[in-house]
Write a structure and sequence with these properties.
Oligomer: single chain
Order of helices and strands: HEEEEEHHEEEEEEEEEEHE
CATH architecture: Beta Barrel
Distance between the termini: 71 Å
Radius of gyration: 27 Å
Helix content: 10-25%
Low-confidence stretches: 19-23
CATH topology: Porin
CATH class: Mainly Beta
Largest sheet: 16 strands, antiparallel, barrel
Strand order of the largest sheet: 1-2-3-4-5-6-7-8-9-10-11-12-13-14-15-16
Length: 347
């Protein structure tokens, strides 16, 4: 073989190698493989009725158990299904129902996430993250039946400048995830929270924050279902302090039923002892379902101490005492003062 032929072959091989390398360099990177994670959280407790002088009822119970299945896919798509196991009123069994079931989409580089399905409502999930003791019981607005933590709808979450501004807005059926789909009427709900001063807590609820929540809607059958709430909160890694005040307006189309104007106030705080897994907590909720009449206000006092036994297990001992402005009935008197020993575990 002549030298000229060898040089030609070598040049052809080099050119082919260059083309292959260039093609490989220009080929897009393969999409990341989908991931699915399964997590869970459960609340268990022992409760002792302090005021029930006839029986002093005391019971062990599982008050809630959640199982979360979360999928993450290419293109900014996320899915979530959460099973909720609880004990409904008037039924001694534990039942299963869906708490969340939605698909979410976050465009690349966007500060917004769009959700469709059975999704979080704007306020309760955010407030529970601030309080951080859902194991003790519901927040004041949810306990009073004014807001649910989940509903069927379409929503948008957004955060800017490392959660300096955090917001959520959505259009929902309005009957909560336990109330069915309702009729053609819908509720518009929205929350915005602004961090006016940072602290060592950089989470979405950390710092000194001002938060506003509004809801405008109509219940199934017609009427009004409106809420307006303002909150000031301060959270560091050691201290949480918050105060909120809400006004509510509810009515139905039946002319004989008057419109109810209510008010809800809540103040709570948590103090984590330094270099310790112990925290002290206290909360006061005031609920007035009808401010146009007297003698119907409820005041709830909660106080206790928690211990973080491990990253997956938290223990809580607390007192939950309810005061009625009117004279309580015998049934109310028996259950208005309770001592709890509660535990939250996750996996």
């Amino acid at each position: 073989m002549h030298v000229r032929q060898l040089l030609s072959i070598a040049a052809a091989v080099a050119a082919s190698t260059t083309l292959v390398c260039a093609a490989q360099a220009q080929a897009p990177a393969p999409a990341p493989a989908p991931t699915v994670t399964v997590t869970g959280v459960a609340y268990v407790q022992y409760v002792y009725q302090l005021k029930d002088t006839a029986n002093h009822n005391n019971n062990f119970d599982v008050t809630r158990a959640y199982l979360n299945v979360i999928g993450r896919f290419s293109g900014g798509v996320t899915t979530r299904i959460t099973a909720d196991v609880n004990r409904p009123a008037g039924d001694n069994s534990l039942r299963y129902r869906l708490k969340y079931a939605y698909v979410a989409y976050t465009p690349q580089g966007s500060s917004l996430t769009y959700k469709l399905g059975q999704i979080h409502t704007p306020f309760i999930d955010w407030e529970e993250a601030l309080w951080d003791y859902r194991m003790q019981g519901q927040m004041a607005m949810e306990r009073g039946g004014y807001i649910s933590s989940s509903d069927f709808g379409l929503g948008v979450d957004g955060n800017w400048n490392a959660d300096r501004v955090n917001m959520q807005i959505g259009l929902y059926n309005g009957e909560s995830y336990s109330g069915g789909t309702g009729d053609q009427r819908k509720d518009l709900m929205g929350r915005i929270s602004v961090r006016v001063s940072p602290t060592d807590d950089a989470s979405r609820v950390g710092g000194l924050r001002i938060t506003a929540y509004g809801q405008y809607g109509k219940p199934t059958g017609g009427g009004d279902r409106n809420r307006l709430l303002g909150m000031v909160s301060y959270r560091t890694k050691q201290i949480t302090l918050a105060g909120e005040y809400a006004i509510t307006a509810d009515s139905v189309t039946a002319p004989a039923v008057p419109k109810l104007s209510g008010a809800v106030a809540s103040v709570f705080g948590v103090y984590h002892l330094q270099t310790s897994k112990i925290a002290l907590l206290a909360r006061v909720d005031l609920t007035d379902p009808n401010t146009d009449v007297g003698n119907n206000r409820l005041t709830r006092f909660i106080g206790g101490a928690s211990y973080q036994l491990s990253p997956n297990l938290r223990l809580l001992a607390d007192i939950d005492w309810l005061s009625y402005q009117a004279t309580p009935t015998p049934a109310q008197e028996a259950t208005r003062s309770q001592a709890y020993f509660q535990a939250q575990f996750t996996f």
